[in-house]
Amino acid sequence: MKITTLQAKQVKKMIDNCEFDLIIDLRTVDNYLKGHIPGAINIPINEITDKLEFLSEYKDKHVILYCGIGSQSKSACKVLALNGFDKLYNLANGMKTYTYDLES
Question: What pTM was estimated for this model as a whole?
């Protein structure tokens, strides 16, 4: 199980270089709509297991997950890893450290 934790600066650089195939925002819909990392889709943490079939096409692709403070995304990465995902990334300390432009 390989989960790579990245700092916000690294995440921004990798997004700019189109290195992620999928960006998942695990926060509530309300928080997602207030502002999210460009290109991110919203799958609230409590729905991640329900979305495994939808996400299965990304098992061999680079997927980053983030939440508000970093703890939920670690847990969600573990769930995905246990279900066969092997290129997982976690935004360290979540959105509180991501100070770059957001989409809303």
Answer: 0.96
